[in-house]
Structure formats: C-alpha cells, structure tokens
C-alpha cells in the first residue's frame, strides 16, 4: 500500500527548511507545554519528529483508503434527504478514519484539544490529502475555519467550538449568495439581534462548500439600512440549534464528493463572532487568505497526482516499438509538468512559512507586548505573506489546470475515458482557479505588490544569495529577467492610466511569479541535487514567459485596448 508522504521526498525537503527552527521555537514558546501535556515536544528535534510521524499517518491513510475510495465517491456523490446532506459511503469512511487518527484541528492549541502544529505541516497534510481525493480535502481542510474562531471569537466561544472541531466535527464558511458571489459587499442575509443578545438569521446562501456542516461561519447584514461592507458582521451558527435547511446540492463538473449547497436560513439562531461591522472588512479577509492557501495546497496535490499518472503511463505505453516517454514531444511535456509542480510547491511552502511567522507573532502579542524588533519582523512577514498568497493561489491553480490537461494529453484517447484516473483528476482540477477568488481576483490582490515594490524587494533578497558555480547560469538568467520585469513595470506605471494598468496587471504579476518561483527552485537545488533538473527546466520556461510579456508590454499602447473591448 502506498504512503503519500514517505513516497514523496520533496515534502520532507520542504518540512526541513532552515526557517522551521525559528517557526517551531516561536510556536512552542520555548516548549513550555512539555510540562503540561505528555505529547508536547521537549525541543526542536522532538517537534520535527512529531510532525514527521503525523504526516506519515496522513500519508498512509491517504495512500490507502482515501485514494481507494475516490472513484466510488465521485460516482456516488452526496445527496439531500429532508433538508440534510448524506455523504457518499466512501466520504463517511474517510471522515471516520481521520477522526480516529486524530487528524482534525491540527493547528489548534493543545489547551483546546489540538496538536498545536504550525501552518506549514498542516498545509503539507492538505497537499497529501488533495493528491488522494481533491473533493475530500474540502471537507477535511475546512477545519481551518476554526482558526477564525481562535483569532476573533471570545474565550467562551473558543472553549465551546474549537474542541468540537478537534474531535472531528466539520465546518463551513457561508459567504456567497445568489446575488453576491465575488462581490461580497452585496451580501443581504439578514441578521437581527434579539433581546437576549443572540441573533436570528434569515435568507439564502449559495455555493457553500460542505454547507451542512456542524459549525458554520456566516457573513450576514447586521446593520439595518446598509448596503456595503460596513454593514456586515460574522456569526457562528451551530447546526444543533436548527433553522437551516439544505435546499439542494449543486450538480458539479468535479469534486463531486464535496457537497456544494444552497442553504435556506429561517430564523436560525446564531451568535456574533468578534465585533459588529467587521465581518467583511477584517474577518472574511483573514478567513479567505487562509482558504486561498488551502486551495494552493489542493492545487499542488492535484498537480502531484497528474504528474505521477502521466509519468507512469508514458513509461508503460509503447508505440512504434518503444515507450512513449522516449519521444521528445512527450518527455518535454512531462519535464515541464514536474517543473511547474516543483515551482508551485516551492512557493506554497515559502508562503506558509511567511504566514506561520506573522501569525505566531500575532498570537504571542495576545500574551505579552512584542519587542520593537519582533513587531518589525511581524510586519515584514505579514507583508510577504499578503503578497505571496494571491500569487501561489493564482499561479498554482493555473499550473494545476495545465498539468491535468497535459496528463490527459499524455494518455491520448485513453485519457478521455473514465477507465483512467486522469479523467476525474482533470474535472476536479478545474475549480481550483475559480473558488476562493478567481485567478483574475488574485491578480487584483497581487498587483499592488508589483507597483509598491514588494515583489522586487523579495526578488532582490533571493538575488543576494550565493549559488554553486554550476548553477550560476540560472541566476544570471534571473538577473536579466528581473531587469526586463523592472522595465515593464516602469512602462506600465508611468502611463498613469487605470484601464491600461488593469489590462497589463496579469502580465506583470505572472512575470513576478515566474522570477520568484525560479529563484525558489534555485534555492531548493542548492540544498538538494534532486531539484536541479526542475530548476533548469523551470528557468527556461520562466525566461520564455517573461520575454513574452515584456515584448507584449513594450509593443503595446494604451489606445490599443479599444480593440479588445466588447461590441
């Protein structure tokens, strides 16, 4: 039986990144929990060993039952009976396995029943689960909603809800509505305060992943007469209280095991989470950033599966007297798939480490005042996490779609048939560049880090690192690419035309992303020779992409936008 952690040495490489020592020591507060909990680590090595062992359990479950159940779950899917969701048989078995293994609430503090893991090993688990069954990762991964309760709810709410998640109850975030998809300012689900301080919710939510979960985070309009984001608050709804029915489950193209629900709220009892009016402005933004990192992990896991399916088929399939992997047209495709996979994974874990450090500092700030140096470091890592999250979600999900497309292409006609897993993987992948903010919205979030220089500063930091002589050519290429990127940014920003800037935003963001990911792969190749080939292949790919975008920008005038406008 396969183990999806131990059969993938790239994961252990990223888990053992030099920055993990700082992350672990901050997270464990000098390992004070070792005196209270017999399963708490006593030192850095003990903590890393704990992450390794838990991820091995995740890998074993995923490489076994969850992967085995994926095809049956896709065929059966969930259903609605009397306003409730009934999961596919395989999904129910998967959830029970994860509960018994203690894999829920991994990142929550031990005092609330969690394992107190940093974000990085938790995201690694999401990567592994996604390789086994993309749709199931949505159910398992939404436990991360507990992070919002931990960050913003009061202590009583934390004590009542977070242990339930750690014991295996599921969560959902109920944000979108029939008339409020990406434009969450238009949310109109009504929240009415009661004399006893509780709230009642009335309205409809649509496209809610795992919408019949045990505990819901709900964005609702609490301020009478408002129509923008300032009138929205966040609420916690407990399924035990009733008042919410599932009207229907969407009939989707992929991730069929993950029920996407339309919910009807009828005087449903709920409680305020955090402060009024901050639901969208503060809490949803934090919630969405966590969700976007989760979808980036999902994208990497799917890319991993697609690459492995394509490689195995190309080695096995013979045409014209030899395996098709021996043909340049095929081995080039597979090498590029691997390079895109390794590049997106490198950015995923770089981002998760940035998130870890600033989130831990935020948590420490609740216990004591941060020193000036700590506060400065928190702000730096927060900015880098804010810059890299839309980058890895946007580009990682696009690479995921490209890899599953190429996986089918390697299979040829067989890939179009349901006999092979790649058909299901291709359907599952498509949503990754849409939900939790489309790729276009990730560009909107990322472009300010182009114009303010965040990406360039990050690139300069990577550029300052020494490299082995045999890898210097990669760095030389990257220095030249960076000069092209700087010139393109100056060309666009000097025009001072909003429409022109928006039109070019995707190209500038992709240029930055290609350079950053190429530097990260170069860094991986410095530490581990197994990444050299991907670093070389991706650098050539990045070089072509940067040159393409630079040429387009240089030869384009703002007036030419008119030719693209709809009739």
The share of residues in helices is 55-70%
- Evaluate the radius of gyration: 24 Å
Biggest sheet overview: 7 strands, mixed
| Helix segment tally | 17
Order of helices and strands: HHHEEHHHHHEEEEEEEHEEHHHHHHHH
Shape: globular
Strand content: 5-15%
Number of E strands: 11
Unreliable stretches covering 5 or more consecutive residues? none
Task: Please report the distance between the alpha carbons of the first and last residues.
Answer: 57 Å
Mean pLDDT: 96
Query: Given the helix and strand composition, which structural class is it?
Result: alpha+beta
Précis, in short:
The protein is an alpha+beta fold and 567 residues long. Helices cover 57% and strands 11% of the residues.
Summarize the topology.
Blueprint: H1 9-15, H2 20-27, H3 44-76, E1 79-81, E2 84-86, H4 89-100, H5 119-132, H6 134-141, H7 146-152, H8 155-166, E3 171-174, E4 190-193, E5 199-209, E6 215-221, E7 232-238, E8 244-249, E9 260-273, H9 279-316, E10 318-319, E11 322-323, H10 328-364, H11 372-411, H12 421-429, H13 439-451, H14 454-463, H15 472-495, H16 498-527, H17 532-554
Parallel strand pairs: 3-6
Antiparallel strand pairs: 1-2, 4-5, 5-9, 6-7, 7-9, 8-9, 10-11
How would you describe this protein?
- The chain has 567 residues and is α+β, with helices and mostly antiparallel strands.
- It has 17 helices and eleven strands.
- Strands 3, 4, 5, 6, 7, 8 and 9 form a seven-stranded mixed beta sheet that branches. The chain has a two-stranded antiparallel sheet with strand order 1-2.
